[in-house]
Amino acid sequence: MSIHEECGVFGVIGNPNSDIARDVYHGLYALQHRGQESCGIVVNDDGVFASHKDLGLVGEVFSENILSSLPGGRMAIGHVRYGTTGGNTVSNIQPMVVSHQKGNLALAHNGNLTNSLVLRDRLELSGAIFHSTSDTETICYMITRERLKCASIEQAVLSAVKYLKGAYSLVMMSATKLLAVRDPMGFRPLCYGRREDGSYVVASESCALDAVGAHFIRDVLPGEMIVFTMNDVESGAGPVSYTENCRDHRTPCIFEYIYFARSDSMIDSVSVHDTRVRAGKILAREYPVEADVVVGVPDSGLDAAIGYSIQSGIPYEIGLVKNKYVGRSFIAPSQQQRTDTVRIKLSPVRSVLSGKRVVLIDDSIVRGTTSKRIINILREAGASEIHLRISSPPFRHPCFYGVDVDSEDNLIANHHSTEEIAKMIGADSLGFLPIDDLGEMSGCASYCSACFDGNYPTAVPTDARKDRFERKLSQKE
Ligand code: SF4
Fold first, then answer.
1. Pairing of strands 293-296, 316-317
2. φ and ψ at residue 5, rounded to 5 degrees
3. Residue 225 forms beta bridges with which residues?
4. Distance in angstroms (rounded) separating the CA atoms of residues 184 and 104
5. For residues 154-164, average pLDDT
6. Which end of the chain is more exposed for a tag (fewer CB within 10 A), N or C?
7. 254 CA → ligand 1 middle, Å
8. Residue 315 to residue 136: CA distance in whole angstroms
9. Mutate to test the pocket of ligand 1, among 6, 183, 251, 253 (most ligand atoms within 8 A of CB)
10. What average pLDDT does this structure show over 351-367?
11. φ and ψ at 291, to 5 degrees?
12. Is the CB of residue 1 below 6 angstroms from any atom belonging to ligand 1?
């Protein structure tokens, strides 16, 4: 399928030991599902920043030697990336580090600015020279520009974010402070926790807090900035919250619950697993069918399959097994080999499927090619009927907030009805989660569902500006 995860951010302050880089490494490992193109760690060793970044998975980029070569320190941040603005080049790898007249700034960003092209144009016209094609560098510039005028990093960030539009969950580090910032709409998640040794941890998802032994304290509020200083951490005073940019109306990304986030994470006090189970229950209520077994497509279809089974009373079974070792470096088969990637990633459990009427649960349909292949695999394993249920509404529109959805032309739901799609992919029946049930599924009073209904919560870039900028970026790269 052609949806790509966005990015994951992580930060720690107050670690009394010398292995802070290893803390970030473990946190990034837990966030690997949010980005597999590149990753990086920056350690703050008494105001001196040391970093290592590269293209690849966390386990590939950070060897034992590299982790040992990073200095100890009391503060560090890290990032895993899937690029949404800018290409997959070394210059775009995060965290980004900027040295300026008043010190250093390291910054890690999850999300996508909707006005980065406007801001970048203005900055370039005033003499700024960019080294990357990423909107994160624009944020670094905006903050640095304000920092030169302001007395503190806190004031500089509060002033700079007033210019930013779109999605940004940020973890930043100056010589003495760690800052966590979430955009006022709260598109991307961000939370923090504390460990028994007194250190604080900030992460995109709570699963990364668990990975380093921190207990979850709370989500960073949409619009909030939380500042952790070494002095406050050591004295036990705790972080300071700035809420002047918070608003009543928030629109967290509903697709985080359906697909992106890990099932064991909590986002804005809602369990991702519970949300997916509820989606399955809704599908069973809205699209009941006589069947022998409910099967989920690993990984994010499994929780919803459990929900469908609970609601319908049809037994849940493991009918597809995922090859856990097919990673980024997997070399796709050639045309002559007449095999497809899905077949190598997913294997059917024949004893579960043979002669059975199967309810198959997946999280989304983008082009329809993957669904068709999975249905073929189930048919070949002997399934007598396949009723596909999708735990999201049909994809119809692009995302401007940090998720790389396929182009509108390639989205199958843009050109075909549900019945037509069922026929094209070979399903006996098909049902999508009704868009009106997203609130019941997530428990959120308001949320972004623009890729399903086209109702963007903010202004989005015009096509003319996007085209011009993409041409400009391709010349640069
Ligand atoms: Fe999430 Fe879709 Fe909104 Fe993007 S457009 S933030 S993927 S709900």
1. parallel
2. -65, 170
3. 181, 242
4. 26
5. 97
6. C
7. 6
8. 47
9. 253
10. 96
11. -155, 170
12. no
231: CB partners within 8 A, 6+ apart: 176, 237
pLDDT at 86 over 70: no
Q: List C-alpha distances in Å: 77 to 171, 318, 340, 470.
A: 7, 38, 39, 30
Return the residue matching tokens 């399955």: 280
Name the residue type at position 322: K
- Residue 160 — pLDDT band, cuts 50, 70, 90? very high
Contact 120, 114 (CB under 8 A): no
CA distance 3 to 372: 17
Cβ 143 under 6 angstroms from ligand 1: no
Q: Which residues are catalytic?
A: 7
Of 426, 443, 289, 416, which Cα lies nearest the Cα of 370? 426
For residue 76, give the DSSP letter.
E
- Residue having the nearest C-alpha atom to atom 8 of ligand 1: 449
Residue 343 has pLDDT above 60, yes or no: yes
**Residue 34 scores a pLDDT above 50:** yes
Q: For a ligand 1 pocket test, name from 3, 34, 255 the mutation site with the most ligand atoms within 8 angstroms of its C-beta.
A: 255
- Does residue 116 have a pLDDT over 70? yes
What's the pTM?
0.92
